[in-house]
Design goal:
Largest sheet: 7 strands, mixed
CATH topology of the largest domain: Ribosomal Protein S5, domain 2
CATH architecture of the largest domain: 2-Layer Sandwich
Radius of gyration: 19 Å
Distance between the termini: 21 Å
Shape: globular
Structural class: alpha+beta
Length: 308
């Protein structure tokens, strides 16, 4: 089953989760930033050994039993009932704790790279459980809103997180994203979770359900005006925006520059603006060029993780 290749190098992209109306169930992939994962055969060893990690400022464990990427890679071996010796390199090319799916990218990259080195016995959808094992080891939660688009590409709806019932959705051809990231703001996932109410009034739940259903319809119809009306978060954003000091200002400026939607990516602090067209996306980024923040402009990444 193992392929003739001795080494595989992959790029796993950043992802945006929630997308306003889809708390813990919607996500999409962008073209950058992301992580590079390398796995090579190592006949003289057993199991997975992490040889090098870069770009992590010493924060990630070299212990393969504790690292997101290697846990996901090992899960693929376990799923296929295979053994062997492998070396792994992890090159972090995206910020930690940014709300851009950093741990998910490593998990997706680890699972996908191992599968490629084995000759691709598993389809991408079949790799979801392995990638989720890696992601859950870092996030301590089982939700695939980052892992699914990172692995499958495009826009994904997670119908049920427990069973990983994921539905790929169409991505309008001219849908672009501008990401705003302030490295000075650190938001712990646990802190962000505390800002989400444990109980939601019926009116709020039905309003959010309407937005989510209309969002799916807007993607199929490529209806940007409908997207503008649907990407609204009545559940997580009201509490979480308090953790981002300039949220209201940035939203106003992005919308004035042409954004059709604006929100918090995952737990934050990254913010995203949705645009109809590349020009509009760059105009939004230009609006913030004098601010002490990082910006990323990208079309929707329809491929997801890929071999380099």
């Amino acid at each position: 089953m193992i392929s003739e290749r001795n080494e595989v190098k992959v790029f796993a992209p950043a992802t945006l989760a929630n997308l306003g109306c889809g708390y813990d169930v919607l996500g999409l992939a962008i073209h950058g930033p992301g992580d590079i994962i390398i796995i090579r055969k190592s006949p003289e060893t057993t199991g997975i050994t992490i040889k090098e990690i870069t770009g992590d400022e010493g924060k990630l464990p070299l212990d393969a039993s504790k690292n997101t990427a290697s846990i996901a890679a090992q899960a693929v071996l376990t799923q296929l009932n295979l053994e062997g010796g492998f070396e792994m390199e992890i090159h972090k090319k995206m910020p930690f704790g940014s709300g851009l799916g950093s741990s998910a990218a490593s998990a997706v990259g680890g699972a996908f790279a191992m599968n490629e080195l084995l000759g691709s016995p598993l389809e991408r959808m079949e790799l979801l459980p392995a990638a989720m094992e890696g992601e859950a080891s870092a996030s301590k939660a089982w939700h695939a809103d980052n892992v699914a688009p990172g692995l499958l590409g495009g826009v994904c709806l997670v119908r049920d997180n427990a069973s990983l019932d994921v539905i790929p959705l169409p991505a309008p051809s001219n849908l672009w994203v501008t990401v705003l990231y302030d490295p000075k703001i650190e938001i712990l996932t646990s802190e962000a979770r505390e800002k989400v109410p444990t109980e939601v009034p019926t009116h709020t739940a039905t309003t959010q359900a309407g937005h989510l259903a209309a969002f799916v319809s807007a993607l199929y119809e490529e209806n940007y005006d409908l997207l503008r009306r649907t990407m609204v978060d009545h559940i997580a954003e009201p509490g979480r925006r308090e953790l981002i000091p300039k949220f209201a200002e940035y939203k106003e400026r992005a919308e004035a520059a042409g954004a059709i939607a604006f929100g918090i990516s995952g737990s934050g602090p990254s913010l995203f603006a949705i645009s109809h067209g590349e020009l509009s996306a760059h105009q939004i980024a230009d609006t913030f060029k004098f601010d002490p923040i990082e910006t990323y402009v990208s079309a929707i990444n329809r491929q997801g993780v890929a071999v380099l």
